[in-house]
Amino acid sequence: MSARGSKRRTERNPVGTTTPTYLGMPKFPKLAAPELRNPVLRHNLQMATHTIRDKRAEVVAEVEDWEVLRLDGARSKDAALNDLDHHLEELERNLQAAGATVHWARDAGEACRIVTDLVRATGTDEIVKVKSMATQEIELNEALEAAGIDAWETDLAELIVQLGHDRPSHILVPAIHRNRSQIREIFAREMGKVGRPAPEGLTDDPAQLAEAARQHLRDKFLRAKVAISGANFAVADTGTLVVLESEGNGRMCLTLPETLISVVGIEKVVPTWEDLGTFMQLLPRSSTGERMNPYTTMWTGAAPDDGPQDVHVVLLDNGRTRVLEDELGREALRCIRCSACLNVCPVYERAGGHAYGSVYPGPIGAVLTPQLRGTTSDIDRSLPYASSLCGACFEACPVRIDIPRMLVELRSQVVDQQRGGLPSAEAAGLRAASWVFGNHKRLEGVQAGAAAASRLLSRRSIGQLPWPASAWTEARNAPAPATESFRSWWRRTHEEEGS
Amino acid sequence: MINSAREEILGRIRHALDETGARATSGGAPPGPASPASPADSRQREEMVTLFVERTADYRAVVERCAPAQVARHVDAALRANGVSRVVIPPGLDRDWLSAVTAQVVIDNGPSTANLEGYDGVVTAASVGIAETGTIVLDHTVDQGRRALTLVPDVHVCVVSESQVTADVPGAIRLLRPAIDARRPLTWISGPSATSDIELNRIEGVHGPRHLHVIVVQD
């Protein structure tokens, strides 16, 4: 039972890079505060998360043995992770045999350098991109831009985010915080600056907006010499990479250019081709709430006379081997980035994705980011607390990542790390409370004082208290003290009955 | 430089796994969920094909069933219904399927990608159909053509035979193993291209073919 007592953890492997966008970000409650005051955002988020969670529930209920599938997904990922070195070597051998070149990147900077050099070697100054969390994590677009290379996002939501000079706020639907009229405005204003402008008289009809994106990107697809992708899965025993998508932008990028560079986190490996039989059921139903996503491409190196002939795969660590060191925490590496945990999370639904200070928002971000980047910054230390521990995320997770348990473990790590030095406000407060509760006279004295204060306050909750109680009230309201203590109420209403 | 990164990452992994005793917990894993074998008796097969048709139509593809002798008529009708005037076909496609077609037919012999923009339709065969999910899988052999062929034209007419339909995803994965071992690329298609990125409204037709027409042929 005592998970903490038996946990085995070493701390040798380095953390991943905190990229410039997220460097020095304040803690979660500070980031969430402005988002909570934005009614448009809250409305967009609530509508989107509820729609998608209902769809998911429907298609999951259709599967008779969903729980068996979840167990098998977890088993397969654990088998991959518990022998990760061998599976990666096997993947590399099979990729090379199929004509692909394999690169290894220890961190974000190294991955960006490898990709930038590969693009430069082709002589082109623009690339098209398939939506990929790994390339966002390493801020590849920014690195390419610094090298004078234009990177065009081709997923509709990523395009909205890129044209809006914005940050993604959801793993699956990164523009979930935007509504149709905001999107229309971004398209009309920005498309012309970087290519084919939006058509005259563009309305906020979603079909028209999608058509504008189709037209805008068509030239870029047909012209591109280089595409950059991630991968949902990398199959060790065949050397096959897999990308699931909906719009066809993925197929365009994976098929039409001459050079294809895929940045793949080392935890994306699955041992065998047969494992896909499980994941191709778990992922679409958990992410978009469909029985199957419209398009999936599976490719093994360079196919003769079909698609890119110059194929590269960059295997990325960037903190993953550090997560692997933690016996409990490594479960987070099972994640297949479906985002089901975001859609069911009461905290995400209200705070939105930007408050998590990372490309991985929501419950999975709250456990993954502090493990990947360490807990030395304000934002990363605060993430394990960005949860009510309600457990909905674990129930929704298709690979059974025990996120609540991991959050508790991470909280204890953060607390351990801060031991020594001045006692915290919480520790001082608890010591004072123990003194007060230790004697009934003291308790009654404090209660009388609180009741008097409450009569002055005349409201039911307090939004802001002075330090050190501000540590509590910056994240939640404090209830106003009762106007009368239970003890005095009892005395007033019962004592005369002679009890 | 690249090699040293490789050695370092593999070293980190070995350290992480060996120090925490993780390797001991792997191995002896239970097998995945059993998948029902594809039904042998004809009533069950008929139910499976019916499900394939329903589920494919569910994602707003147009689906119809016909006898082998009627394929040509259905292909022609599908192309006409979508107003296709120039159709491209893979080199190994059964030419009988096009015997009734009035649109101009061109055989793909590897023209440049830009040239594919000149076609408004494509007709192909398929490799596997998955009943449970309404999915067709192309393994891009000679009757399905290179990947770009079924991507750039706006109308895709796909002919699937009933014997290619399998019950579920694990069954399809097993059937596709030889294609993967031969390092052929695969494309899984479930309905026409779609997006839900704008307020989660499903919109058909972004970049891939906006019209998918599936013809299921009796064996």
Overview of the structural elements:
The complex is a heterodimer of chains A (499) and B (219). Chain A has 24 helices and twelve strands. Chain A has 499 residues and is of the alpha/beta class. Chain A has a six-stranded parallel β-sheet with strand order 1-10-7-4-2-3, with helices on both faces. Chain A has a four-stranded mixed β-sheet with strand order 8-5-6-9. Chain A has a two-stranded antiparallel sheet with strand order 11-12. In chain B, the strands form three sheets. In chain B, strands 1-12-7-4-2-3 form a six-stranded parallel β-sheet, sandwiched between helices. Chain B has a four-stranded mixed β-sheet with strand order 8-5-6-9, with helices on both faces. In chain B, strands 10-11 form a two-stranded antiparallel ribbon. With 219 residues, chain B is an alpha/beta fold. Chain B has one domain (41-217): NagB/RpiA/CoA transferase-like (Rossmann fold, 3-Layer(aba) Sandwich), CATH 3.40.50.10420. The interface between A and B is large, with 100 and 76 residues. β9 (295-300) of chain A pairs antiparallel with β9 of chain B.
